[in-house]
Amino acid sequence: MTVHLVGAGPGDPDLLTVRALRLVQSADVIVYDRLADAAIVALASPSAELIDVGKAPGKSTPQELISALLVHLGRDGREIVRLKGGDPFVFGRGGEEALALAEAGIVFTVVPGVSSAFAAPAAANIPVTQRGVARSVTIVTGTCGDGQDAPEWSAIAPLLDAGGTVVVLMGVANRRSYVDLLLAGGASPDLAVAAIERATTPAQRIVRTTLAELPNARIANPATIVIGDVVDVGDRLADLITTSFATVH
Prior knowledge:
The chain is an alpha/beta fold. The protein has helices at about 20-25, 40, 65-75, 95-105, 115-125, 155-160, 175-185, 230-249, and strands at about 5, 30, 50, 55, 60, 80-85, 110, 135-140, 165-170, 190-195, 205-210, 225. The strands form 3 sheets. It has a 5-stranded parallel β-sheet with strand order 3-2-6-1-7, sandwiched between helices. Helix 3 (about 65-75) packs across helix 4 and helix 6 (about 155-160) crosses helix 7. The longest helix is centred in the C-terminal third of the chain and has 19 residues, at about 230-249.
């Protein structure tokens, strides 16, 4: 049988791909992350075995154990879904799991998902690129594992200065550190920032601030952080939508 590395999208079950939905509903075993929304896990068959391997502060399943578990399950003759928030290959460590499965001779497929890097800004009416405002978008992780090199924030700062957009995933806990590095690299302290908590779910919350004030903003995990002038475009859209709705009604 097969191990399917499935992207669960940003949270809203309606944003699952058709293939992802079919696999979740038919899987014998679902190995799921903390960021795979409970409403999506609930779509599983009543007979499916559900295994929580979520990573959270103070409670984290080592990646080596997850990969070993997938290899073990893949030899078991059942249909396995590895359900990962967003897209499995966008800071989801899906590449590591795919390598472990391939090295063990386990057949696997990859089912892309809607990444929160794009879905969260869209849910907040923020276009990550906009003609005349932002011609590029950079996706960066705000969290690195032990022994891993941190992103080159000094190289990212000029992208913001040139009008680019930076989207930070897993960037709540360490934001003071990378904000200091961005400011030291020349990024403007007045750059607009939006943090979208639990994007696309009923609990979605948007916090707007500036780069200098980002470390002090009250933001809860999970959140996607958008830095750049496109945040102002989202604010203009929000004002227009409010005005239009008021006119209509």
